[in-house]
């Protein structure tokens, strides 16, 4: 039985390519997490100001931003080769959109990704 022999150079090139791909994935996830912090902040402002009526005006743009960010993250993961099942399109009416399970699921993802994902992404990027 022969064992394939790889040179040090081949091993180094393969390792550096894998490290570059992993770094690209980390930076991409960190980017969507950073954008998610903004959407999360807007969501909080809309929720707090909803009783005054201002939050209701912000709700529709915030939901569009939430769905766009989640779609961007799904596309980023799909480029990596992960099978992603796209959700149904969100409803156009505000009441139906707020009650939509996809919106609630994406809002839960936003909270986790923009807080924990951002912190873990920073930790991974800053550690040697």
UniProtKB/TrEMBL annotation:
The keyword Kinase applies. Pfam families: Sensor (PF13796). It comes from the Bacteria. The chain crosses the membrane at residues 33-66. The keyword Transferase applies. InterPro entries: Put_sensor_dom. Keywords: Kinase, Membrane, Transferase, Transmembrane, Transmembrane helix. GO terms for molecular function: kinase activity. Residues 26-126 form the Putative sensor domain. This is Sensor histidine kinase.
């Amino acid at each position: 039985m022969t064992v394939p022999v790889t040179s040090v150079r081949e091993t180094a090139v393969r390792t550096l390519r894998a490290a570059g791909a992993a770094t690209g994935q980390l930076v991409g996830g960190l980017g969507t997490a950073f954008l998610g912090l903004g959407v999360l902040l807007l969501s909080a402002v809309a929720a707090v100001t909803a009783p005054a009526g201002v939050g209701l005006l912000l709700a529709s743009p915030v939901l569009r931003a939430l769905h766009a960010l989640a779609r961007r993250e799904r596309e980023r993961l799909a480029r990596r080769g992960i099978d992603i099942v796209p959700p149904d399109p969100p409803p156009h009416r505000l009441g139906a959109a707020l009650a939509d399970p996809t919106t609630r699921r994406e809002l839960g993802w936003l909270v986790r990704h923009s807080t924990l994902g951002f912190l873990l992404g920073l930790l991974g990027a800053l550690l040697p």
